[in-house]
Design goal:
By secondary structure, the chain is an alpha/beta fold. It contains 3 helices and 7 strands; from the N terminus they run E-H-E-H-E-E-H-E-E-E. The chain has a 7-stranded mixed β-sheet with strand order 1-7-6-2-5-4-3, with helices on both faces. Helix 1 packs across helix 2. The longest helix is centred in the last third of the chain and has 18 residues.
């Protein structure tokens, strides 16, 4: 996906289509990148991360890290995924601090980083991809926005 600066809109008919989008993104985004996941509760953010993880070869179950705040996963081939959920952090400085700590670790691991509820931060990192998930009839619509650079 690097080099493709167009905003893409994808219709997702069900959870399986959302996981498939995650799998597609995993094959296109490299390690060290950040994917911000925006959408209401139940929009499919964690489902998308499950697709990312499965495509990366991560075998352990992927669940929402709402209470743990962050989960780290490693595939047998060494690729890594950092899954961050900022929902419970109401103060932007707390969300910013956790994001920066986890991003530093993700960069050290060469990990792809998926962040749920990035709206909790004071500002979005300009080098991040953003995926908006929103209801669309019986399914949902995903709008993938490339980094601002």
């Amino acid at each position: 996906m690097p080099g493709n600066a167009a905003i893409r809109t994808i219709h997702l008919v069900d959870a399986e289509a959302t996981r498939a989008l995650g799998a597609s993104l995993a094959s296109q985004l490299g390690g060290g990148e950040v994917l911000l996941l925006k959408g209401n509760l139940g929009a499919g953010k964690t489902c998308l991360v499950q697709g990312l993880a499965a495509a990366m070869g991560i075998e352990e179950p992927v669940t929402s890290p709402t209470f743990a705040l962050a989960q780290h996963y490693r595939a047998p081939d060494g690729r890594a995924l950092v899954h961050l959920d900022l929902y419970r952090l109401e103060l932007p400085p707390s969300a910013d601090e956790l994001f920066h700590q986890e991003r530093e670790e993700a960069e050290a691991l060469g990990a792809l980083m998926a962040v749920e509820w990035p709206e909790r931060m004071s500002h979005a990192p300009p080098d991040a991809w953003t995926l908006h998930l929103e209801p669309d009839g019986e399914g949902r619509r995903g709008r993938l926005i490339p980094p601002a650079d």
